[in-house]
Amino acid sequence: MGGKGLALAALLCSKVVHGFIASTSTSTTAKHSNHRSKYTLFHEKKSNDAFLNSLEEMNGREPSQESLAHLRESASSSVAAFLSSFEKEDDEGISDTSAPASINEIATESTEQKSKVLWDVYVCMSKACKERGASATLDTFQSLSPDSVRVHPAILSKTKAKGPNVRCVQTSHPYKAIEINNVNDIDKVYRILTKHMDVQDVSIKARDNLKLTYLGNSHLEKNELSEAIASYNAALATNYEPQEGILLLLRATAYLKRAFAHQAILRQTVDDLSETVPDPAKLGKLYHIANTNPSLSKALFNKVLRDTKLQDKKFRQTKYRHGLYEYALLHAAQDSLRSTQLLPHHAKTWLRAGDALAELRKLKESALYYQKAMELDPTLRNRLEPVIERLERSQTFLDKAKGWYSSDTLRLALDVAG
Fold first, then answer.
1. Quick count: other Cβ atoms within 10 Å of Cβ 378?
2. Mean pLDDT of 244-253
3. CA distance linking residue 326 with residue 360, whole number of Å
4. Helix (H, G, I), strand (E, B), or coil: what is residue 51?
5. DSSP letter string over 151-201?
6. Cα gap 418→414, rounded to integer Å
């Protein structure tokens, strides 16, 4: 089916789909208006290729069908791999790290761990300090500190200086203590650990990774999605493996937000297109006038020709915007699927993967991911069970609609209707 035929069929199909979705909404948890805040992971801490050449820089060129096909195939293979592992986990369960076999072993491990600790770091978590970013300071100390440093949240009394305030206590001779105020960035934390505390094994790679991650989170909170994705890309390029799963989850969140932004523009583009398509009854009258009044036929023909050129432009814009929307969704799916492998016990990874798959109309697979998220975090059950029910109803509708419309037309109509 050509570009015009696809768009026209999608316009008609979207009216049917929109009516259905109004009563049985297939909106995922990521699109609820009261759920948008979840897009900023670790929001309370103000902290924590892909698009390779940025689709915004394509200068109007449409994403190639080969690229779309490759990404769809990659996402589908990831889904298939998950389904096979999911069935295996149902039979065997997910094994946790085995615990020591005896109380003596626990006591021995505890003694050995305690003997390695050289410093205790206390980060003030008073209301005043938290307002100045103490949560991020605590998170940074925990991320950068080696095993020889224990980090504790605390309420430090008699501190009049500006927070966040930090107290560092040496646990062995010469038992010195250091108190530092206004510890509000990663470089200060790194300097305290390496210079003041003389800790030798602080990872520079971890520091750089954390700085880029926090920068990406700051951009994400401001809805600066291209900048957020670029920061997460740079953080991933540091190859600091302990943060890879979280970074992929954050980047998937940014791509989902980008997809929704493209979807909003896509809907407006389709609305503009619908205004250029003449009503069949009016078009019939024009042809009748042209036949009965030959002198007017040329003027009417020129008008129809101008309208057709405008429609062609809107058709291309619709196709381009839909390509951008699908690209962002496919990247979100890839990142979130990979994050479930790296962080299998983290409910948010399964939740985000379910969101991305639901947007891609992988409704059955999405429901499985939501089920897994609920297993890991039962508090999600009240929110996700109604979503899963809507997905099941939507799947029934899709199965029936496939007999009437092509897959491309149906996909475009569903994406426009939301």
1. 10
2. 97
3. 8
4. coil
5. EEEE---S--S-S--EEEEESSTT--EEEE----SHHHHHHIIIIIS--S-
6. 6
Euclidean distance between CA atoms 351 and 372, whole angstroms: 8
User: Do 27 and 263 meet the contact criterion of CB atoms below 8 Å apart?
Assistant: no
Residue ranges in 343-380 assigned as alpha helix (H): 347-359, 363-376
Give the β-pairing of 119-124 and 149-154: parallel
CA atoms within 13 A on the CB side of 247: 26
Query: How many residues are given for the chain?
Result: 418
Dihedral angle at the C-alpha atoms of 178, 181, 187, 192, nearest 10 degrees? 0
Comparing C-alpha atoms, which of 101, 141, 147, 149 is closest to residue 123? 141
In the chain, CATH 3.40.30.10 sits at 119-198
**Residue 401 banded pLDDT, cuts 50, 70, 90:** low
Q: Kindly state which CATH superfamily the domain 119-198 is placed in.
A: Glutaredoxin (3.40.30.10)
Rounded Cα distance, 111 and 124, in Å: 27
pTM (2 d.p.)? 0.66
